[in-house]
């Protein structure tokens, strides 16, 4: 008889997709609200977007327990910074802190894939994209999560980010106006939901589960956070409920 060994992993992947787009005077960060594991939907109303400072927001996919631990750690470090410097941390400073925090845990990483968006010291939009161990890059737009392989080609086609190898270096911010960027985010998520079951789409297991749960009429939304000189505002768009 073949020996069987029990396998246990400290990680899970709770799916979901995040997108961020930076403009001349704004930043748009969006994520879906479904949290799942395998073919099971854990909740349809879970926000993946966390406000880290007045002008800095982080959206995260991956293992949501690690994401929550990371958010609490960053909040504590930001509080210490405010006591020491008597001001809020800027978005580029928070981007460096997030990179350092992820790299510090590189031998047992936070299983989270983050996009950080906000306004820099000049009021221009900025987006930073990360891997799980802290390698990051400042870009004009980015996507993370289970739907990112579907979303990024769409964004590349629409926005055509300048190559970082070109000299002189070109600004990474996108040429879209704020309403155009919000419309583009809604379009890419509507497209991704048709093909990615972890964002939202039809799958026989999901359909059976939704028939079992009366909460199907709630949730499964796209959450959009817009940062500009006026502050932060949120918008929601319903995604398909099956």
UniProtKB/TrEMBL annotation:
Record GO biological process: proteolysis involved in protein catabolic process
Subcellular location: Cytoplasm; Nucleus
Any one Pfam family match given in the protein's UniProt record, by short name: Proteasome
Keywords on record: Cytoplasm, Nucleus, Proteasome
PROSITE patterns linked: PROTEASOME_BETA_1, PROTEASOME_BETA_2
GO CC list: cytoplasm; nucleus; proteasome core complex
Major localisation: cytoplasm
Function description: Component of the proteasome, a multicatalytic proteinase complex which is characterized by its ability to cleave peptides with Arg, Phe, Tyr, Leu, and Glu adjacent to the leaving group at neutral or slightly basic pH. The proteasome has an ATP-dependent proteolytic activity.
Protein family according to the UniProt entry: Belongs to the peptidase T1B family.
Subunit-level organization: Component of the proteasome complex. Component of the 20S core complex of the 26S proteasome. The 26S proteasome is composed of a core protease (CP), known as the 20S proteasome, capped at one or both ends by the 19S regulatory particle (RP/PA700). The 20S proteasome core is composed of 28 subunits that are arranged in four stacked rings, resulting in a barrel-shaped structure. The two end rings are each formed by seven alpha subunits, and the two central rings are each formed by seven beta subunits. The catalytic chamber with the active sites is on the inside of the barrel.
Name this protein carries in UniProt: Proteasome subunit beta
């Amino acid at each position: 008889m073949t020996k069987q060994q029990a396998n246990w992993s400290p990680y899970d992947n709770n799916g979901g997709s995040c997108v961020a787009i930076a403009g001349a005077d704004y930043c748009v960060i969006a994520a879906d609200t479904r949290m799942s594991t395998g073919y099971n939907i854990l909740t349809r109303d879970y926000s993946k977007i966390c406000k880290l400072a007045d002008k800095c927001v982080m959206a995260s996919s991956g293992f949501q327990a690690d994401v929550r631990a990371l958010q609490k750690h960053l909040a504590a470090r930001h509080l210490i910074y405010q006591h020491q410097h008597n001001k809020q941390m800027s978005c580029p400073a928070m981007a460096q802190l997030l990179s350092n925090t992820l790299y510090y845990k590189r031998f047992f990483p936070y299983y989270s894939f983050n996009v950080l968006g906000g306004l820099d010291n000049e009021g221009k939009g900025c987006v930073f994209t990360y891997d799980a161990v802290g390698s990051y890059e400042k870009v004009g737009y980015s996507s993370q999560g289970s739907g990112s392989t579907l979303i990024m080609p769409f964004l590349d086609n629409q926005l055509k980010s300048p190559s970082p190898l070109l000299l002189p270096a070109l600004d990474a911010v996108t040429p879209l106006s704020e309403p155009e960027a919000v419309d583009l985010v809604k379009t890419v998520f509507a497209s991704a939901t048709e093909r990615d079951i972890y964002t939202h789409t039809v799958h026989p297991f999901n359909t059976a589960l939704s028939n079992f749960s009366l909460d199907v009429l709630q949730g499964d939304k796209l959450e959009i956070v817009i940062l500009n000189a006026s502050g932060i505002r949120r918008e929601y768009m319903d995604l398909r409920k099956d």
